Write a sequence for this structure.
């Protein structure tokens, strides 16, 4: 079963992390990714550019409305994601707990809706 | 009542959880399991009346319900294949396993441990954990649970639906957790059981009937936990604590339905059987030398239970136990109780010093008992003006009539 791990973090404090420490954290991310890949549990994942680069799009009454900024102003911002394969929620949360940002931010774990075609595959 | 009917009700109370736990494992669905078991009970009602009660009623029901589960799954499969919708299999907890169950065997599997951990999974909110535990493991009806928790049936039903949906969609595993997380998961299970107990114990007079059932149910769940995971001292501590608190049930409310303090309770009305069992359990737990919160609270309750009269209480031992509890929990309320025990054991001056230290952090400033205890100690130290101030601060902090009356009585005495 696929789970999306959404990585939320306070952006200003992430920006304030010194370069050496940041490199170390990136190293941890790479290590986790490699490990998940070797077990066939890594589907995809990426860091996102900061929310200052975000654009929101809405279509209302057929009119396209494009605005600056993220969907919601929250205390922590979506900064990246992992899409993983896990046998159940416990396995997914165990992986989420190993994401370096879990120590400072929050990882939201969301199961994907599985369609008939995928489930039988 | 006919004998068949009587057996059926007994089996329902005692075996519902165990049977439903097995059916959930086999079917991968809480709803399917509950429906099948309900149907099996209905079949049993007429069949047992006609043909007599089977040798092993629990196994009989499991087998019949199992067949019903299999039928339901086959029906659903055919329907889903035709409709080409979300495949039923993918939404179930685990693939269907053809488990051989025979009604003449005396052994049938015990899956309750998985069930407890799934019901109390940390990804479910506490209210959902409680509702699910009582519904599936306890076999209480939605109506009974709703009444006991003073919520509408619709609210409770919704809570259960959402919880079961989350178990299914997020695939909360139906298994005993791994050793790494076992400790915290088990703590959550105990918290749920103790919450059920307290919900029953904190009842006001009018609702006593339903709510005493909650205490009994919590104790029963506590026993199940001890049976499934023996030699786990905190599980024993929890059961002991509930038994010892429950032993005072008849004495803690007077005829007018008001709460009576521990000091003033008629100790002849305490339940000696529960005290004996609770005391034995807490001793056995402590001898395993892995002390914990519930064991210490139970030990304190056991020391109180030992005293035939309030003035025979072994306060030195209670001080030591609270000291230990404070060391492992560092909760301000425990610090307050510790100080109160010290006051009883070593005198009001020492007690007051500790009490004020406990209150210094500020967490107790809106807590009725902090100000009331402080006032009591000041009064005993003859610092009467300060006592009046403290009682006056305490008064608006409680909505409990008995507590309010106590404060008013003290204030009147001091103002004379």
């Amino acid at each position: 079963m696929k789970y999306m791990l959404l990585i939320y973090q306070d952006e200003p404090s992430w920006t304030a992390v010194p370069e050496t420490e940041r490199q170390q954290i990136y190293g941890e991310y790479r290590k986790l990714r490699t490990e998940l890949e070797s077990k066939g549990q890594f589907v995809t994942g990426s860091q996102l550019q900061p929310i200052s680069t975000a654009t929101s799009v809405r279509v209302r009454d057929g009119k396209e409305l494009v605005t600056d900024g993220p969907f919601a102003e929250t205390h922590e911002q979506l900064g990246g994601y992992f899409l993983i394969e896990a046998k159940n929620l416990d396995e997914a949360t165990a992986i989420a707990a190993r994401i370096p940002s879990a120590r400072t931010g929050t990882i939201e774990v969301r199961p994907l809706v599985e369609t008939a075609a995928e489930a039988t595959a | 009542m006919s004998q068949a009917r009587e057996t059926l009700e007994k089996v329902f109370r005692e075996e519902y959880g165990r049977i439903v736990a097995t059916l959930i494992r086999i079917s991968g669905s809480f709803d399917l399991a509950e429906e099948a078991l309900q149907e099996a009970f209905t079949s049993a009602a007429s069949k047992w009346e006609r043909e007599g009660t089977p040798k092993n009623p629990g196994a009989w029901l499991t087998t019949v319900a199992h067949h019903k589960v299999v039928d339901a799954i086959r029906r659903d499969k055919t329907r889903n294949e035709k409709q080409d919708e979300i495949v039923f299999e993918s939404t179930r907890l685990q693939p269907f396993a053809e488990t051989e169950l025979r009604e003449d065997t005396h052994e049938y599997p015990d899956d309750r441990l998985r069930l407890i951990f799934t019901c109390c999974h940390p990804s479910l909110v506490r209210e959902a954990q409680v509702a699910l535990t009582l519904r599936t493991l306890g076999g209480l009806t939605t109506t009974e649970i709703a009444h006991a928790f003073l919520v509408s049936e619709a609210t409770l039903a919704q809570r259960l639906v959402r919880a079961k949906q989350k178990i299914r969609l997020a695939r909360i595993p139906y298994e005993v957790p791994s050793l790494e997380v076992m400790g915290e998961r088990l703590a959550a299970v105990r918290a749920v059981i103790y919450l059920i107990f307290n919900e029953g114990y904190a009842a006001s007079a009018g609702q006593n009937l339903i709510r005493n059932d909650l205490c009994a149910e919590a104790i029963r769940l506590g026993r199940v936990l001890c049976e499934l995971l023996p030699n786990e001292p905190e599980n024993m501590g929890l059961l002991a604590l509930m038994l010892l608190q429950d032993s005072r049930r008849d004495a803690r409310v007077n005829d007018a339905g008001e709460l009576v303090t521990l000091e003033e309770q008629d100790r002849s009305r305490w339940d000696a059987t529960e005290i004996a069992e609770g005391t034995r359990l807490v001793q056995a737990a402590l001898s395993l030398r892995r002390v914990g919160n519930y064991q210490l609270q139970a030990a304190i309750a056991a020391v109180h239970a030992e005293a035939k009269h309030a003035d025979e209480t072994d306060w030195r031992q209670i001080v030591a136990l609270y000291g230990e509890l404070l060391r492992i929990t560092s909760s301000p309320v425990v610090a307050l109780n510790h100080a109160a025990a010290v006051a009883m054991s070593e005198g009001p001056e020492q007690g007051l010093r500790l009490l004020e230290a406990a209150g210094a952090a500020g967490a107790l400033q809106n807590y009725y008992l902090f100000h009331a205890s402080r006032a009591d100690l000041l009064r005993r130290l003859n610092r009467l003006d300060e006592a009046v101030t403290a009682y006056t601060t305490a008064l608006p902090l409680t909505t409990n009539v008995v507590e309010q009356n106590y404060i008013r009585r003290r204030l009147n005495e001091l103002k004379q």
